[in-house]
Design goal:
six-stranded mixed sheet; alpha/beta; seven-stranded mixed sheet
Length: 397
């Protein structure tokens, strides 16, 4: 096996079980690893510390195990079984009101570089590393073992996530399909609400499962309110608000495909144009033209403004401008649910951007709640970088 030897003093992060080895920490590579190979990592004095996937880049090794488990023939079955046990523990399996959840959340489930979302028997996989991409068929077989007859299909959607410079054949498609199953779309349940999910044509794996708890919270506050859902994608927040008794909901997104899915989901849940309007336009431009006080509940959930640290400053300015526009337009006594899904924007930086927005508007704003990602998007305590979703519930006087 290829050995990675660390520089003296650079093993401290592994002693704290951090799952990454950076290229700058490496003193020597004994052998000639191909990207995606499993390698062993050793301290400068030769002590074995971890096994992981080798990759080219600033993160040189993504740790799979701090012992020899990564070499066991049933490694994938064991790790996926552990991930499933976590979802069982938080009530996401066998739940008659919710049959979709994230099964594997990368480092949060000690499987860095791997995402698997479960939709009523269909597992949609995204590999973010060469190692996970090369292991996808083993992962598919392990999924068949842990789910048994319950599994309808395993779909690989890694064409947009696996490293494109690695020379991989990045074509999305099925790794497994149960006989008789031939659909790319299912209607799933989330807290009793119906959503049509298309893993082939939809963004990410087809649905944003990370906002499940926050959508539920919107439902608790939406009754009797006029609601604006900006960057609505397929209308998750809108459905919860309608079901809770919102007077009217306007859903805004620039994607025609997304708005078509919004209309489908609104109809699936029994609502119509008397309480819901779909607006296919730029969310920021729409917000600029909104009359002050038209909405007394707003959801501001934009796509990631910063995907790397180099974009952080511009991202924080964008969050400030967007939230200033929302704060200036929401009705007196209104609520704003505002979010950032940019991993490089931490909670403190996001809160400061929103504070600056409030100060710019000169309105009295209170933070009623701090919002996070749900339990199936768990954060490895040794990898705090995994806490990517953050939000604030604001009350604007």
């Amino acid at each position: 096996m290829i050995k990675i030897i660390l520089k003296r003093g650079r093993e401290e992060s592994l002693k704290r079980f951090h799952p990454w080895v950076f290229s700058g920490a490496i003193a020597e590579i004994q052998g000639n690893p191909a990207e995606g190979d499993i390698v062993s990592v050793h301290s400068s004095d030769g002590i074995l510390m971890a096994y992981g996937h080798y990759q080219i880049g600033s993160i040189a090794v993504r740790v799979l195990s701090f012992d020899a488990d990564a070499l066991a023939p049933d490694f994938w079955e064991i790790m996926l079984g552990r991930a499933l046990a976590v979802r069982e523990a938080v009530g996401l399996t066998g739940n008659p009101r919710t049959n979709c959840y994230r099964l594997v959340h990368g480092e949060g489930d000690n499987l860095p570089g791997l995402i698997i979302d479960y939709y009523d028997g269909v597992c949609v996989m995204q590999a973010h590393s060469v190692g996970m991409f090369r292991a996808k068929r083993q992962i598919s077989e392990a999924l068949r073992k842990i789910y048994g007859d319950q599994l309808k299909a395993v779909y690989d959607k890694s064409s947009g996530t696996a490293p494109f410079k690695a020379g991989l054949e990045l074509v999305d498609g099925y790794l497994y399909r149960k006989e008789g199953f031939d659909s790319d779309e299912l209607v799933v349940l989330e807290n009793g609400h119906k959503f049509s999910v298309n893993w082939n044509e939809g963004q990410k794996t087809g649905f944003f499962l990370d906002q499940r708890d926050n959508r539920d919270l919107v439902g608790l506050h939406a009754k009797g309110r006029n609601v604006l859902n900006l960057f609505c994608y397929t209308g998750g927040f809108s459905i919860y608000a309608l079901a809770a008794g919102a007077l009217h909901v306007d859903s805004v997104d620039s994607s025609k495909k997304a708005m078509a899915m919004v209309d489908k989901n609104v109809a699936l849940n029994g609502f119509g144009p008397e309480t819901h309007t779909s607006l296919c336009c730029d969310a920021i431009d729409y917000l600029k033209e909104v009359p002050e006080g038209k909405y007394d509940l707003m959801i501001v959930d934009p796509p990631a403004f910063a995907k790397h640290r180099g974009a952080l400053r511009n991202a924080l300015r964008a969050y400030q401008r967007l939230n200033a526009a929302a704060i200036s337009k929401v009705a007196h006594g209104g609520l704003i649910f505002t979010y950032s899904c940019s991993q490089v924007v931490d909670k403190e930086a996001f809160a400061l951007a929103v504070f600056s927005a409030a100060a710019q508007c000169g309105r009295s704003v209170r933070i009623l709640d701090r919002l996070n990602q749900p339990a199936d998007h768990s954060v490895n305590i040794y990898h705090p970088e995994g806490e990517y979703l953050k939000g604030l519930l604001l009350y604007v006087e």
